[in-house]
Write a structure and sequence with these properties.
This protein is an all-alpha fold. It is 53% helix and 0% strand. The protein contains five helices and no strands. The protein is globular and about 30 Å long.
């Protein structure tokens, strides 16, 4: 496994701090994330704690935890035969005789 970049380490530290706060039923704020990270002896860029605070206020952390690895919506299924039905209609009358 490759070594993490400094930014990845900082993001991971804030993630763990947010999870600890959530697990203890403590409001997730930038100040509290920063306090936990500093207590662990980790220095993070000043924007990380406030970024986590904003994201987690806008999103339900329980839903984020429960949907880890769920991915996005599934792609729409292609019509049978691999070609869209609209294209079949367009090309069906080229150069042929019209039926009465």
């Amino acid at each position: 496994m490759p070594e993490l970049t400094q930014a990845q380490k900082e993001e991971l530290a804030c993630t763990y701090a947010a999870l600890i706060l959530h697990d203890e039923n403590i409001a997730i704020t930038g100040d509290k994330i920063n306090a936990l990270v500093k207590a662990a002896g980790i220095t993070v860029a000043p924007y990380w704690p406030s970024l986590f605070e904003r994201v987690l206020k806008a999103n339900n952390i329980e839903a984020l935890i429960n949907n880890v690895g769920a991915g996005g919506a599934a792609p729409a299924a292609a019509p049978a035969g691999g070609a869209p039905a609209a294209e079949e209609k367009k090309g069906g009358d080229k150069g042929g005789k019209k039926e009465p």
